[in-house]
Structure formats: structure tokens, C-alpha cells
Amino acid sequence: MSLAVQVHRIVKERKGQGEYIPSHTHPFFHCVYIIGGRGRVQIGEQTVDARRGLFLRIAPHVKHAIFGEDAMQSFDIKFSAQGSFLTQLNELPLAMPLDSYEQALIMDVFHLAVRGEAYAEALINTRMTELLLLLLRRETRVSASYTAPLNGSHAALYPALAYIEQHPDQMPPVSFLAELCGYTPSYFSTAFKQTFGCSPARYLHGKKVELARERMLTTDCTVSELADQAGMDPASFSRMFKKVTGISPSQYLHRVNSDVGINISPDSPYLPSGAFEIPKQG
Fold first, then answer.
1. Which positions ≥6 away from 135 have C-beta within 8 Å?
2. What percent of the chain has a predicted confidence (pLDDT) above 90?
3. Whole-model pTM?
């Protein structure tokens, strides 16, 4: 089976009450992931109630229209697939809720697009391929989530992981996390890095940045508010954010606070001449 996926374009757009994208078709897949608010999506003869966390699959050449209701925000991912992979994707349900790992994949696709650094296109195509494969084998897949039951070395570290998840406004020292697990700080740090491939501090920073980026996408906020949520002063938070993502939080806010269309494949024959293929109306 050929697994070639080419993402052409990613759009982030907010649609309020009365705003809509009129009925149209594409010669490629158009998937919509709802990151906030509510709306309706007409796909062929069916109407889907679009809500947070729902992933919608619109096949090539199928008429569709998108209607905002309660400040709906979404990622629209336009991509092509080939051969038997295309056939299998056409058999997926029109609407699927994503689990935490699948959500992380699609969020990473958008964040890679926003940063636009070296190898972004290849990484985006890889992440999108993984997401689609996971959806295809959903009936047998076990979710890879830290909130699920853990075993082995993961289970021994779970008290520390749970504390980090439940206290996003704190910066607990390694000694405190180690004590939760019954380890010395040195042993805890070694076990953590062997299990997760990074230090406890890097994991903690990554979690805080993940929460900050999600809040940037779904609410109106300032860097100071994000820093307060992370339990940090703005300067320290900004340094941490830039170290993890490569850009400052103020730059990131500027890029995601408005409707944005990002071309992923410069060689795609499907890129629009304007900012958006079908401008929203209403």
C-alpha cells in the first residue's frame, strides 16, 4: 500500500454566528479539526454538528459547506493521497473524535506549519500520515496517553507525571517529584530520561508550552497571563517558550490570533492565488 500523503495547505479560521464558507468542492481531501466553539458542516447530503475535538473527513470532489455558530475555530488541512491508501481513507467515518495522542499529532502539524523551519513539510506529511493510519486501525489501537493506566517503569513514575498534569501553575523541583515516586533525585532523573528520552525539567517545560499554545489557539490572552498560568514570571516564561519552540510567545500569539492560511508544499498545483481559497461570508 502506498502511504504517500502530501499536505498542500493548512488554514486556521474562526467563524462566528452567521459566518460561513459556501458550498464548494476540491480535487483533494479536506479535513476539519474543531479546536473550539461550535458550528455545522454540510458534507454531501449529511450535516454534522461540529464541536471541539471532532475530526471531519471530506473526500475529494464531495460538496461541502461550513457554518459558524458559537465562535467556531478550526484547522482545515488540505492534502492528497494515492492508490489504495486513498481508497481506505474514503471508508473512514465522516466525523471522528480524536483521543489525546491523536490531538497532539494534529496540534503538532499546525505548530510545525506556524514555525516553518527546516524539514517542516516532511515532518507535517509524516505526522499526518501517522494520524490517518491510527484512525484506520482505531478498532484495535490502544491510546498512548499518560492519563491511561501505566505499567513497568512508566507506572513507577506516574505520581510525578500526575502531579505535573494536575498542577500546571507550579514549577516543582526534581527533588519533590523524586520524593513522590520514592526515589532519590539522581535515580529519578536517570529513570525518567531512560523512560521518556528527556530530563524531568525538559518534560515539564514541554508540558507548560503545550498548555500555553493550546490557550493561545482557543482564547484571547496575553504573554503575562500565559506566564501566570505556568507559575512563572513573563521573562522566564518567554525564555522557556522560545527555547522549546524556536520563537517567542509574542511572535506565536501574533501568528495564531487571526485567521491564517499556510502553504505547506511550494510545488503543489492546488495553492490559491489569494489568502484563502473560498473566503468566508456573512
1. 55, 92, 96, 102
2. 56
3. 0.75
